[in-house]
Amino acid sequence: MGLQCIAANQLTTGGLNVAEERRPIPYRNLAVGAVMNVFQVTTLGQPMEVLKTHLAANRHDSLKDAVQKTWARGKWSAFYQGLIPWAWLEACTKGAILVLTASEIEYHVRNKLPNASPTLGGILGGIGGGFAQAYLTMGMTTCMKTVEVTRSKVSGQGVKPPGPLKVFFEIFREKGIRGINKGVNAVALRQVTGWSSRIGISRFAEESIRSATGKARDEKLRFGDKILASTIGGALSCWNQPFEVLRVEMQSMKSDPGRPAKATIVSTFKHILDTSGFRGFFRGVVPRIGVASWATICMVGFGDTVKAWVATKQ
């Protein structure tokens, strides 16, 4: 009877019986994700995020204009506008959720669907991770980061402009939870399409590198190969830039009397098309390629390496 129970819990893969094991969820990946995302945003991430957001909100400016106007607002510190507390808060939470969720989904795809490719696992992991990010943490923090970059910082009649926390509570008092989660559906579209592309394309690139170098499917890649695959995944994931422009426009505090009073994805889409044409949906794509590539390197390339190292310490 005991042997029958054991046999019933086995999977057959390519003629081999592999015992299906239950394992505890590695919650250490929450810490790995948080640390890696804070590192990403504090180094190159936030300056490129500020430029990308400026271009998406000011769609007639060039990249040179964005750099010059950002510098004029406060020199180097202006490129880190919104970093504290919103970008750090967002990085801690979304990074932790992404790495835990995506890693678990990829793990179960590998074990429950043994014939599935790593690319499929990466795509499904990115969809789940991006969805969890958007609706659990990023509605508020992404909105407030955009508010910080797009709101006026000019003092009027000697009155100091309000700080980020004061702005947060003003929005909350006036518009409630919906106000500080404005644009969350556009955030979800961006995150789901973005991370499914980043992780999926990165895994496809890893498979291609293995094939080109004659490595087996389960053989570890060199660190440089992981970084190359992550860079490719991050850069090619920027096909979804229109969702990012929609998100920024819905959350922007830039004065625009033509913007719909009650912004939805459809009404905001029409507004951008009417005012900036089709090209307006790709404003800010150059710095976003930088953001996406660096984020994928940190969360996929570096992240895989750190997860493996942490696992050996358990």
Automatic annotation (TrEMBL):
Solcar repeats lie at residues 120-208, 221-309. GO terms for biological process: alpha-ketoglutarate transport; mitochondrial citrate transmembrane transport. Keywords: Membrane, Mitochondrion, Mitochondrion inner membrane, Transmembrane, Transmembrane helix, Transport. InterPro entries: MCP_dom_sf, MCP_transmembrane, Mito_Cit/Oxoglu_Carrier. GO terms for molecular function: tricarboxylate secondary active transmembrane transporter activity. SUPFAM superfamilies: Mitochondrial carrier. It is found in: Membrane. It is a multi-pass membrane protein. This is Putative Mitochondrial DNA replication protein. It comes from Aspergillus calidoustus. The lineage of its organism: Eukaryota, Fungi, Dikarya, Ascomycota, Pezizomycotina.
